[in-house]
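Bench notes, afternoon.
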Amino acid sequence: MSQEVWKQRQIITWSQILLDSFSNLFGSELISRKGSVNEQAKSLFFAPFVVVSHGTETDPILNYGNQRALKLWEMSWSDFTQTPSRLTAEPINRLERQKMLQQAATKGYIDNYSGVRISSTGQRFVINRGTIWNLIDRQKNYCGQAATFSQWKIIVDKSNCS
């Protein structure tokens, strides 16, 4: 199912919001915008870097994760898109994460961020050189935030080694 999610009309529309918002803020494209909106949604979903987003709920829920993100967080599309985004970080790292999201909300984006995140199985990893940006729809309404990164490192828990 996760492999085909990019074909859904609402995901194609959301992919355009992700891509348009990025382009409007940075003056460059997140991916090559060749082809139809369907082809762009597919390219974004199968991109060789992570792309995630959440909505505007009081406790924002993840509403998009491309294939690379689903693999990194070790979740199915269904599980991922029901997860509060704060749960992508361990409790000790959530205040730092929230401050970063607030900065992005105020400025419109943050680039070159780093932080520790955790997968659904407890695997910790460090994100490096990430970008967070605000999502604005075609009616100029704020509709969430997205993040992308292509550099991360798995944290090996040496306390379990003998």
